[in-house]
Amino acid sequence: MISKRIGLRFSLALAGLAVSAGVGVALWPHATRAGAVIAAQEDPVRLSELQLAPLLQNEPARIARGVEEALAAGDPDLAESFVALARDHHIVPDPALVQRVSDAVAAEQAPTSVAKRFATGLVTGQADDVASLSGTVAGDLFVFGDIRDAVREGKHLVMGEETDRLVLGLATAGLAVTAATYVSAGGAAPVRAGLTLVKDARKVGRLGEGLAAWAGRSAREVVDAPLLQQAVASGSVLRPGETATAIRAAFRAEKAGALVRLGKDVGRITEKAGTRGALDSLKLAEGPKDVARAARLAESKGGQTRAILKLLGRGALLLTAGAFNLVLWLFGAAMTLLGFVASLKSMTERATQGLIDRGKRRRLRRMQAATVRAELAAAAPCG
To answer: What is the C-alpha separation between 322 and 37, in angstroms, rounded?
Structure first.
């Protein structure tokens, strides 16, 4: 009876071991991917690669759809980014579609179109591509744009009216960086362009809420309000040199480190992924760390960056809501491994107990046989 119970327990343990092994085999690919994604959470390049590979493998049509949507929206730069991403992942798009993208890019880069967008950026101070950003930066380098913004917002501040302190702080910082740009023969130009783009993104509502809140707090710290009020009280865009000098005096350089780093990161994105890539990043970012991650992604992926951000959103920069599902996969794998080990332990114990019991039975039989032989020998007649 005992032997049957041990045999039953051994069979159950063996069944548990088989089930655990089967479930483990099924979970293993998901668990290893989850582990790799979690391990890459601080590396936006690796993180995006791990997420893009299965996405494009399961839905290769996402590339063509992305190109069509970009062309329909009048954004050939994004369409070209999707084509570059397709080639990197060995996906061959329709040649006719690629030709449409090439034609759209060529039309956008036509001299008349570039000149028009440059003039628009110079006059309005708003940029959404390389040409208009060049015009905007040109205006800020000649201090016209920053003085215009600083005087406008500064007068709101003097009058007690609603003031966009972020634009005010960025314009003030921009004037100081512009002076540094001239002194360093252009060495600070990427920071200058980055600050300009952040300011423009703010104006057109393309700055993420979290990033806007952080940048607003940082911008408050870099401006000496009393000095600025004195500067703008008599300042005018008609006296740019005098006004710029007065406004720069209100700039607290010792407080501007974080804001300048933000401008530098935005400049890095612009250099590798273009102006629109930087604007896409600023819209997704919830803080300066997100912008720094986007800069690392842009430096590695270049022209593919916009398509990656379009497909993955904030997931290209950091783990988002999907992190919980990844943890569940790892938890499931851990529980399966625990079940496997427990079943193996139980099976080993039952097998060992079975061997011990079998040995005991053999010794008992030998002892019984010896006893019987002794009794027979004692009962045998003498002589």
So the answer is: 10
Sign of CA dihedral 147, 152, 157, 162: negative
State the number of CA atoms in the 13 A half-sphere of 316 facing the CB. 26
- Distance, in Å, from the CA atom of 20 to the CA atom of 332, rounded to the nearest integer, reads 11
What Å distances lie between residue 359 and 4, 8, 164, 263, CA to CA? 16, 19, 89, 80
pLDDT tens over the chain, length 383 residues: 555 565 566 566 556 556 655 655 555 565 566 556 666 677 888 888 888 888 888 888 899 999 999 999 888 999 999 999 999 888 888 899 999 999 988 887 777 766 666 666 655 555 555 555 555 655 555 566 777 777 777 777 767 777 777 787 777 777 777 665 544 544 566 776 788 778 878 877 788 888 888 888 887 777 776 776 676 666 554 455 566 676 676 677 777 788 888 888 998 998 899 888 988 999 999 889 999 999 999 999 999 999 999 998 888 887 665 554 555 555 555 666 666 666 667 667 666 766 777 777 777 777 877 777 777 777 766 54
- Distant-in-sequence, close-in-space partners of 242: CB < 8 Å, separation ≥ 6: 235
The Cα 316–Cα 243 span in angstroms is 43
Q: Distance of CA 255 to CAs 223, 261, 286, Å?
A: 9, 12, 21
Closest CA to 266 of 147, 173, 139, 152: 173
Do the beta carbons of residue 211 and residue 282 sit within 8 Å? yes
The structure's pTM equals 0.68
CA atoms within 13 A on the CB side of 329: 18
Joined tokens for residue 286:
């919830």
**CB atoms inside a 10 Å sphere around CB 359:** 10
